Amino acid sequence: NTLPKVTIFGTGGTIAGEAKTKTDVTGYKSGEIAVSTLIEAVPSIVDVANVDGVQIVNTSSANITSEILLQMAKKANELLKKDVSGIIITHGTDTTEETAFFMDLVNQTNKPIVVVGAMRPATAISADGPMNLLNAVKLAASEDSVGRGAMILLNDYIGSAYYTTKTNAISLDTFKARDQGFLGAFADGVAHFYFEPAKATGKPNFDVSKVDKLPRVDIVYGYQDMKVDQINALIDAGAKGLVIAGSGNGSIPTAVKDKVTELNKEGFPVVLSTRTGGGFVTHKDYAIGSGTLNPQKSRIMLMLALTQTKELSEIEKFYSTDK
Ligand SMILES: NC(=O)C[C@H](N)C(=O)O
After folding, report:
1. Which residue segments constitute the domains of the chain, with CATH numbers given?
2. Is the beta carbon of 60 within 6 A of some atom in ligand 1?
3. Are 124 and 161 in contact (CB under 8 A)?
4. What is the mean pLDDT of the chain?
5. pTM here?
């Protein structure tokens, strides 16, 4: 038929989660139900698009690896370059923003990639997954979605993958972009956008078609009395770059700053982000400031940046919001 083609990558998460009782919304197993079953549970999807399901993995989103990200990037680009109008990734919400951000940066087309999940398992009363999935199909199939980058969709709200983050451990209303706001919302089963299509300022694009492996990048949490031991241990373990979730505008204790300064002189990339959940980390003369990116997105950016350059001054540009 003439409906747009949409491919759904199933990766697991609560949207595919199964609990022992209908009222259990925390003690359940993520990634139990196949993507084909999720699609069958929403019969009206067939009125919106020609849908195809691909089971990539079926697991909790904490188990998504950079190998899985690369696999999805290659498959998504292959399909989007053909006649598929949009890709949906059903995903656990805990690391949704990492996958969505990665897919946003590696998409070689202007077609939509929509990452969707749920906060209540499929077996719960008032499960949010089926409606979220139907909305995701509408979003991925819509011409209005073209040129908007990857998007995160949950609880009727459409957020840009670049800026949206999970802000609450259990609430249905968890995804937010506090400073930048949502792109739009569903009303009466229809996606309404608040703006014309736009690209996040300074957003780079990475072609990973020839990348076999992403470099290891780790995150270290900052706190009072933080020591340099974790930094040393991670470098010994093979980290090719580090992100520090500093306090405030990326601040770290003096001893850690001395270590970071030393690493900077050696050309080892350290990105300073913030544990505050918002704002902007400015560039320092001893480390790269993460700009608007939180620690987990800064990590994804650094892995991708390192596939292109080892130069700190070049890496720094990927965190810039300048045009
Ligand atoms: N709401 C969720 O999807 C959480 C789940 N633990 C996950 O796989 O990320």
Report:
1. 5-193 (3.40.50.1170), 217-317 (3.40.50.40)
2. yes
3. no
4. 97
5. 0.98
